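[audit] Reproducing an earlier prediction to check determinism. Same input, same settings, fresh worker. If the tokens differ from the archived copy the diff job will pick it up downstream; this log only records the rerun itself.
[audit] input (224 residues):
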Amino acid sequence: MERAYRNLGYVLLALLPIFIAGFWIPYLSEIPHFDLSITAAVHVHAVLLFSFLLLLIVQPLTIRFKAFSVHRRLGKFANFLMPFVVIFSVVMLWKEYHEHLADGASMAAARNDEFLSASQLVLLATLYILAIASIRKRNVAAHMRYMICIVLVLLPAGLARTLGYWFNYRQSVSQTVCFVLIDSLLVGLIAFDKHRQLPARPYFAVLLAYGFIETLWVCLGRPV
């Protein structure tokens, strides 16, 4: 791991309370008596998401403490886990789409309401593929940066919910705050790498992708 990123695992660990807070009111606080709307698929999705998040946090710590064999084994497990994360995320999109229809939304409105979730899922899967392709080419620098970007993609899952459930922000406002924060972090990471003459191309690519997603979202009227 590059010296400038040696404490990355600790930084990611600090994000864990945001995800716990974000899922506390609608999910974790209901254990073991869940609302009927929380189906078995929702439980599987939650377990997969938190498992993948924990892997993202632990992996840089294994490098930090030179546990390279553990890092490789966890990486193989992540490769097994990721397809299920994508599959059950699609299941959740389909569930929420039909819930919008059941609430009286038109097909177009229900589709637009899932735009952010769908676009960020596509971005998540794309970044993971790029991360794996990079490590197979032994491009550790690009691999690490794509994995950092994956954390940023997952950030709204915790932060937007925290802002909504704990601080009563409207969903469109919560997502706007998340986008501003993600864009700012990407710009900061680019500046950080440029200052140290490190390769920042993955950050540039993801910043452009977010610019495209955000523009489309605003054109659609910021649906959530």
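[audit] rerun output stored. Observation attached for the diff report: The first helix runs from residue 8 to 13.
[audit] end
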